[in-house]
Write a structure and sequence with these properties.
This protein has 17 helices and eight strands. The chain is an alpha+beta fold and 379 residues long. The strands form two sheets. A four-stranded antiparallel β-sheet has the order 1-2-3-4, with helices on one face. Strands 5-8-6-7 form a four-stranded antiparallel β-sheet. Helix 5 crosses helix 8.
Length: 379
């Protein structure tokens, strides 16, 4: 292993230690590729833009013998184990606040390897899954806490947007659902979703229904906010509050005071008298904005679903449950509509209960809105 390649590795980083052996006895071409990828952080800015010259050179170096296998292996190892930063205890993040430390020398090659993966071809199904796992760990879109890295998350979103095929598109749909808009690299995720959808000629109505923000809501349509460890792992706020979307489409915020007293408010979601002083004004304002954003999404979904009756569309059962019935925002209105599903014996459509078990309907069955008298007359 050359000294220059060795300088890119970090003995305190698990990813570096797991992959160290693959950097020994590299060909001159692969050595050049590794060194080039190791400079990625210099050519990937805070807006998640990739330098054109660096990208062109990366594509050329990926043609070297063994380059594709090396990149796939390094991405697979990034997806394994913990996050890149090896920190899974949410309490530790509090100790990091206000502290300045030099980034790991392995961070830049990790970003470079991730970006390069987007320009690979062939069978990319496993690669897309690995990239998605790296993205979720570094964008705080996991049930378990991982120390996030915005640049590494942005690099994986960018790479998935470049990968051809439906596998990358499916991973992007899932990421769009789990990654909250408050995460800084969310903007590049949205861009990558649109880019992949355009390449696969996804109809506009499908793009609209598959990119409805979850706003961090749990399946019960609540979002618990608090200090790290007391609320959503992706939101560290100096207060305790719960945002709830009710069956009626109404949004409420429950503010919990120091003495345990809870006050419920509706739009415009003002906090109790003196609450800002006892907590922090910026945290209160952030909660209010988040609740207001939910209301805007709910209003948009109410209008969108109102137009579905005249479109005569059908959905596969798994897609309908995912994007309509079980979605914490869209589901509020979807559950109030009359749906029916295609009978397995081909005898027509049968009424569909909104709370029907997943196995009650064949996965190949199609779901549609029950036609109204006016729509039947029009047809």
């Amino acid at each position: 292993m050359s000294d220059l390649v060795a300088s890119l590795l970090d003995p305190g980083n698990d990813w570096s230690n797991r992959t160290r052996d693959c950097f020994t006895d590299l060909s001159p071409e692969l050595t050049e590729l590794v060194l080039h990828l190791g400079a990625a952080a210099q050519f990937f800015d805070y807006r998640y833009k990739v330098d054109t010259t660096w990208k062109r050179r990366t594509k050329a170096l990926l043609k070297a013998y063994g380059a594709e296998e090396l990149v796939r292996y390094l991405v697979r190892e990034l997806a394994q184990g913990g996050s890149f930063h090896d920190m899974t205890d949410p309490r530790h993040i509090i100790q990091d606040i206000g502290q300045s430390r030099a980034p790991s020398p392995a961070r830049s090659p990790a970003i470079g390897v991730t970006l390069a993966a987007g320009w690979l071809r062939g069978d990319t199904s496993e690669l897309a899954a690995d990239l998605a796992m790296v993205a979720r760990k570094n964008a705080q879109a996991m049930d378990t806490y991982y120390r996030a890295d915005d640049d590494l998350a942005g690099a994986t979103f960018t790479a998935l947007g470049e990968l051809p095929g439906p596998a990358a598109m499916e991973e992007l749909w899932t990421l769009h659902y789990w990654v909250t808009p408050s995460q800084h690299p969310h903007k590049v995720l949205v861009k990558s979703v649109k880019k992949a959808a355009a390449r696969l000629v996804v109809p506009p109505h499908e793009l609209a229904e598959r990119t409805v923000s979850r706003h961090g809501l749990e399946p019960d349509r609540t979002l618990t906010i608090g200090w790290i460890g007391r609320g959503a792992l992706w939101w560290n706020a100096a207060l305790d509050a719960v945002i709830t979307v009710h069956d009626t489409g109404r949004v409420t915020v429950d503010w919990t005071d120091e003495d345990g007293t809870t006050t419920r408010t509706t739009a415009p979601f003002r906090s109790p008298h003196g609450y800002k002083t006892r907590t922090r004004a910026d945290s209160v304002d952030a909660v209010r904005r988040h609740a207001q954003d939910m209301e805007r999404t709910l209003a948009a979904e109410r209008l969108r679903l109102a137009t579905l009756a005249g479109e005569n569309r059908t959905w596969l059962w798994p897609d309908w449950t995912r994007y309509y019935r079980d979605h914490p925002i869209t589901g509020v209105f979807a559950r109030s509509l009359d749906w029916e599903y295609e009978a397995p014996d081909g005898s027509g459509y049968r009424p569909l209960e909104a709370d029907a078990p997943v196995r009650a309907v064949p996965s190949t069955a199609r779901v549609r809105l029950r036609p109204t008298e006016s729509s039947l007359a029009g047809s």
